[in-house]
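Tutorial sheet, problem 5. The two components below are modelled jointly, 490 residues in total.
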Amino acid sequence: MDIKKTPLFEEHKKLEAKFGPFGGWDMPISYSGIIQEHNWTRKSACIFDICHMGEFIISGPKAAEALNKIVTMNVEEIPLKSCKYGFMLNETGGVIDDLIVYKIEADKFMMVVNAATTNKDLENLKKHLPESISLENISDNIAKIDLQGPLSREIIQDVLSVDVSSLEYYTFSSYNFLGQENIISRTGYTGELGFEIYVEVDKAVELWGKLLSDERVKPAGLGARDTLRLEMSYPLYGHELDDNTGPLEAGLKMFVDLEKDFIAKDMLLKSQQEGLKKRLVCFKVNSRRAPRNGYKILKDNNEIGAVTSGSFSPSLGYGIGMGYITPEYKDAGTQIKLTDSKVQLEAEIIKRPFYKDGSLKK
Amino acid sequence: MTVEKNLLYTRDHEWVKIEGNQATIGISDYAQHALGDITFVELPAVGKDIKQQETFSTVESVKAASDIYAPISGKVIKVNEVLNEAPEVLNSDPYNEGWIAIVELDDLSKKESLMDAVSYEEYLKTLD
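Model answer (structure tokens):
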């Protein structure tokens, strides 16, 4: 399969980005350096090319009711112009994808999904949506650029001349700029105040250039996106979530409405009754060394789990990570070891998130 | 990408500066650039015997951990402890402040396997 390029690929080349593959796409990993980009997002604002992610429009009479059977959050309770995070599950209760549903009109929703899972998600929706509901994959027509950082609200105001000051966390609206109506939502993956901007694909370069012309804005790649989300202990599909892992094991019950019916709800209830077999935990290392995906987690020399994500934390100055362990050891304060064949790190389980000073709800 | 003139280089992008029976070791500008932001350097123990082409240090960046191979054999007599607190010096000044260790050379060191600056520059052109 050919590796895909976003409409901003040439812009990234001009900026001399380092590229890497992600979810079938050739994506910018960093420009000036991951730590610089990370710190600039926490201090000012950065733009991220997120065009690789997928978007679907789901519409038709009783669309909310139909969608509600497929996702874990309660779609019928989403207010107009609000969005909600949740999951699509397979029959065994594993996560097909984590996603956000936007309520655009009473019977019209946008679903935003991960890049690598777009086709799998589409298949699952086709399989379960009734024929009366229309499902449109608009991923190739929509460019998504995220602006994240404490100054992002003023920057949008100054650069695009639109007032997003009334947008609450996890709401969105349609705004006129670049000669068309575009959705801006107050959402993100960094723990900072931030916005996700959706425009027609042929407006991507213009929007990128406009935002970048403001000296408070720098470009950031997927490297910084990963360290920023990890400091917030946000899950990344393929690491903390996958087809064999359920949302309860990941500690994400607040995004699952067990009061309504949805695919594999019975499996979740069963796993809860029987007791969860593993739990996601956060841990900090007692040095600058980073645990890496796949490291074993040991307690008193017994293997109790494995690391799913790990990095040096630029904001905190030490190694941090997440991983699944046997539930009995999940409490904060537990001392553990993280090892591969060459490295052994001392770590302590802590309460999420790692980073608590973000401007997210400012 | 800069290549410092008076150093010898390996194909794995370490550099070595030989003065008498001592050699200072580090990584090249190409290496630090490829690694990205360096967050941790595991320094070898002083007194340790290191062998040419064997791992003697590990450098971690945000994205990955990479082994550093000894460009020369000998006994470690000094390490750059600045790197414990400020590993980013490896990015900002790989040829001077970012040196990793000084070794006392032993007779087994094969200098002929190392490249001079001109050859190393040619070698870099063959990489993309």
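Marking note: The two ends of chain B are 13 Å apart (CA to CA). Full credit if you identified this.
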